[in-house]
Amino acid sequence: MIEDQNDDFTNENIDNQEPQETITRITGMYKEWFLDYASYVILERAVPAIEDGFKPVQRRIMHSMKDLDDGRYNKVANIVGHTMQYHPHGDASIADAMVQIGQKDLLIDTQGNWGNILTGDRAAASRYIEARISKFGLDVVFNPKITEWQASYDGRRKEPVNLPVMFPLLLAQGGEGIAVGLSTKILPHNFIELIDASVKHLQGKRFTLVPDFPTAGVADFSNYNDGLRGGKVRVRAKISQVDKNTLAITEIPFATTTSSLIDSILKANDKGKIKIKKIEDNTAAEVEILIHLPSGLSPDKTIDALYAFTSCESSISPLGCVIEDNKPLFVGVTEMLRRSTDNTVDLLKQELEIKLGEFEEQWHFASLERIFIENRIYRDIEEEETWDGVINAIDKGLQPHIKHLKRAITTDDITRLTEIRIKRISKFDIDKAQQKIDALEEQIAEVKHHLEHLIDYAIAYFTRLKKEYGEGRERKTEIRTFDDVDATKVIIRNTKLYVNREEGFIGTSLRRDEYVGDCSDIDDIIVFTKAGKMMVTKVDSKTFIGKDIIHVAIFKKKDKRTIYNMIYKDGTKGPSYIKRFAVTSVTRDRDYDLTNGNKGSACLYFSANPNGEAEVVSINLRQAGSIKKLKWDIDFADILIKGRASKGNLVTKYPVKRVELKEKGVSTLKPRKIWFDDTVQRLNVDGRGELIGEFRGEDKLLIINQSGILKTVTPEVTMHFDDDMIVMEKWIPKKPISAVYFNGEKELYYVKRFLIEQEGKEESFISEHPNSQLEIVSTDWKPMAEIVFAKERGKDRKDNLEINLEEFIDLKGISAQGNQLTKDKVNQVNLLEPLPYNAPEEVHADDLEVIDEKEVPSESSESNTSTEEPNSNKNPDIDDEGQTALF
Fold it and tell me: Residues with Cβ < 8 Å from 778, sequence gap 6 or more?
């Protein structure tokens, strides 16, 4: 028995081996099920359809709202419950989707607290808020006669496959979703611009589309890439300067909120990347975030730091993915709009064809009714006893009168005639009946005309939408091209840098050693040693460079204005050389030898000059042999600026005892040319935009705003400019400023001419009355103005008057009221071409000529022979330019 049991057990095990194949089948089923799940998420939850721009939950919400629509508001909780008849998911997902639609302010007319896209505040519970379909939604989304229907998930009801949306709704609202294996991110576009683009498409013209965000802000769409994968949109908050210690954020980037923005600013402040004193959030209907700065901090630099280190600038990567024919389709916004517009034209055609059929049916029955009553055919059925007899009698009576009808008479037509009441027959008016038929014929003709000119009809349709619903939907986001913010130039120096010169260490932890200056954790440091070596390295707690450090500073990449002056000894007993060079780019943490590389070389004199200054030094030789001249002077201005790898000019072949500074020098660099790029509203030294002028160290920039405020500032590439700026030019202190302004208090026009008394101070030169306004301002030497007088009642209009402003008024103080322009009523004041004038030339103490390189004067006759080898030890990876005059 035991053996039999074992045999049975063994056989049972053998039999039970078959389910292992079933496990393999389950794996296959798992793969199929996962694919089914992924397809379901893509098609039924995350990605919108290209036909109507809705995700399934959005489409079902709109369909449910149409079911419930009676013109009054419905509780959102009721709409959510009704939508659950069509959507096989929870009420929370439906409510969230409905709030998102409502916040876009397009399809749903909302009532109650629906949240705030600016602050990120959530909407109230669905039982407290109400909604109904907006007038626009009723106009463009619904038409049951041209809607294709399908059974709902439980088969109890019918729901639309797609709603007949006759507008590029997907592009207007935008859409975002994450599915299994793919995602979509379609950015919202401007309502009016979409309609204009649709019209251009119908007219066969080209068009371009860029997003427009409900949070406004400023955006750079130069890399938008038509909304396809790989594109990028940079969005910035709108930041303005309230005063020298206060900044105001009035618009925020898309996909951020005031709360998240403030958090990012506080986080950057805690890390020491920016420095703020206090931040206030006064946001209500509009954004207002006030940032208070510590005294002495540059507002312009802080604005750039906010863009560099906080959410005030964000990058958005669009990805145009939609569902077409139950498949994902990656498509750009231009093609989306074309397809939407073509779909709208097709829907309009279907609508017209249905309308034409209805009008023709009405005309057909109205004609039959008139024939039936006018010819008293109803009397032919009095003697008929059967229904078939009645039908045949009416049909026979109609035959002589139906030649003009457009289709044959059916039994249903005759049945409808029998349903006409006696009261109606007795009150039948032939003239009114004919008027009705004529009206129907006009409507039929009109519909046929629209069908024959379908494109014109579609253009008129879009034009009507723009006229009826476009008010208040103008572009919110300002389009601008951005310059990249150099983080190293705007970061707050929140760390102290120290150096141990003898032992050769630099770092932030050497607090017992010599303090160099403030730095940040992203700075590079340039270091020079007595051995003639140079290195650039990152800021760290402690870094070994080399013994006997002679210069440490923050390294500025591509800085061509910082010039290093150097005299070095070539080897232990070699000659001495002098050189001037700039360091624009290097390989980090690499030793660079600034000498000829011979053993025992050493630096005898070194200076770093931020604006190319060239000092005079005294060379002192050791007493040796028959040397007659032991001391003489060298002017670095006589040395041409070259690359750092150049050998330099020979000073002397004799041993140098010491080199002493005799006289500080001035800059040998040419004035720096500065341009203004209107596209990005920034200054630059790269030749982009309009040339402002050539600036030396002490030169200032004059800025005048339409509000009557002026200031002189040192030009910096990090500066920001107000939108109402009307004058920006190089300031000439002795050049007068002329202005005509309306004095709001006295309601008269005044003229004033003045010089700026305090440079660097922001001042108003018109009266402070709220109605005062600047008419014209001129920085010409001899400005001319034209007065256009207003016509007074009962008087002839006075001829225009030209005025020489220089002769009209003498120079006065900036705070003076000025002279009254005229007592007559003025329509406008125009600025004319100025009178010719030879302006005095500017004279600067540093107008020096950089002379050609020559031998440096020395006591020795050997020094009369130059041993310069410009590229004797130039490394192939060095990026410096050789013989260059730096700007």
Answer: 737, 738, 739, 785, 805, 831, 834
Q: Are residues 863 and 783 in the same domain?
A: no
pTM of structure? 0.73
pLDDT score, position 410: 83
37 in catalytic set: no
Nearest to 762 by CA among 294, 177, 155, 244: 244
3-state helix, strand, coil in the chain (%, to 5): 30, 25, 45
544 shares its domain with 563 = no
- Domain finish residue from 137, 165, 193: 165
Q: Is 182 within the bounds of a domain?
A: no
Mean pLDDT of the region 80-105:
91
Instruction: State the catalytic residue, choosing from 128, 461, 498, 592.
Output: 128
Q: Quick one: which of 594, 613, 538 has its CA closest to 878? A: 594
pLDDT in tens, 574-600: 999 999 999 988 899 999 999 998 999
Domain count, the chain: 6
Instruction: Name the strand (E) or helix (H) holding 325.
Output: none
Mean pLDDT of the chain: 85
- Domain of 358, in residue numbers: 342-469
Q: Is the dihedral of CA 2, 8, 11, 15 positive or negative?
A: negative
- Any domain includes 175: no
Same domain, 683 and 710: yes
CA distance 609 to 565: 8
User: Residue 519: what pLDDT?
Assistant: 86
Write b or e for each residue in 443-466: b if 16 or more Cβ atoms lie within 10 A of its Cβ, otherwise e: bbeebeebeeeeeebbbebbeebb
Three-state SS for 439? Answer: helix
Q: Assess if residue 571 is contained within a domain.
A: yes
CA count, 13 A, side-chain hemisphere, 636:
33
Does one domain contain both 715 and 827?
A: yes
Read off the pLDDT of residues 167-198 as tens digits, 9 standing for 90 and up: 999 999 998 888 887 889 999 999 999 999 99
User: pLDDT tens across 663-702, in order?
Assistant: 887 777 778 888 888 877 888 887 888 899 888 777 889 9
Q: Provide the token pair at 175.
A: 């859409």
Listed in sequence order, the DSSP H helices in 762-868 are 805-808
Chain centroid to Cα 54, Å, comes to 27
511-516 own/partner pairs: CB under 8 Å, 24+ apart = 516/552, 516/553
Say what the pLDDT of residue 232 is. Answer: 93
Cβ-in-10-Å burial (0-12, 13-18, 19+) of 419 comes to exposed
CA distances 195 to 187, 333, 343, Å, are: 16, 14, 14
What is the sign, positive or negative, of the torsion defined by CA atoms of 150, 153, 157, 161?
A: negative
| pLDDT tier at 473, thresholds 50, 70, 90 | very high
Rounded distance between C-alpha atoms, residue 395 and residue 412, angstroms: 11
pLDDT band for position 431 (cuts 50, 70, 90): confident
Distance from C-alpha of 740 to C-alpha of 753, rounded to nearest angstrom: 9
What is the CB neighbour count within 10 angstroms for residue 74? 18
Q: What is the pLDDT at residue 842?
A: 57
Distance CA 711, CA 761 (A): 6
Which residue spans within 27-124 are E strands per DSSP? Answer: 74-75, 108-111
Give the position of tokens 């604006």.
611
Mean pLDDT computed over 404-426: 82
Q: How confident is the model at residue 27 (pLDDT cuts 50, 70, 90)?
A: low
CATH of the domain at 297: 3.30.1360.40
**Residue 523 lies inside a defined structural domain of this protein:** yes
871 token code pair: 């590229």
Provide the 10 A C-beta neighbour count for residue 6: 10
Count of beta carbons in the 10 Å neighbourhood of residue 690: 9
pLDDT at residue 336 in the model: 93
Domain identity same for 461 and 500 = no
486 vs 484: CA distance, rounded Å: 6
